């Protein structure tokens, strides 16, 4: 609500970001149950985190929020 309501747009997109995280956790748990552990492979683990954390950032912070809230706060 704190992201979508101020710009009156993109309702549900921030929630989708956390649904994506839940999906990533379920996949990782399934892999762990099959014997694969990301802590054994540091580089692969970092790529995994970037895949699930950084790549969906536009879903968490949609363009209207960045344009109407974030940039004015940063005085850009």
Provide the succession of SSEs.
HHHH
Q: Which consecutive residue ranges, at least 5 long each, have pLDDT under 50?
A: none
* DSSP summary: helix tally: 4
* Main sheet attributes: strand count, strand direction, barrel closure: none
Shape: elongated
> How many β-strand runs?
0
Q: Distance between termini? A: 24 Å
Calculate Rg over CA atoms.
16 Å
Helix content: 55-70%
Integer tally of domains: 1
**What integer is the average pLDDT?**
90
**Alpha-beta content class:** mainly alpha
Query: What fraction strand?
Result: under 5%
Task: Describe the structure using short key phrases.
elongated; 64% helix; mainly alpha; 76 residues; 4 helices
Chart the SSEs and their pairings.
Elements: H1 13-33, H2 42-54, H3 57-60, H4 63-73
Quick overview of this protein structure:
With 76 residues, the chain is mostly helical. It is 64% helix and 0% strand.
How does this model look, in words?
The protein is elongated and about 45 Å long. By secondary structure, the chain is an all-alpha fold. The chain contains 4 helices and no strands. About 65% of the residues lie in helices and about 0% in strands. The chain has one domain. The mean pLDDT is about 90.
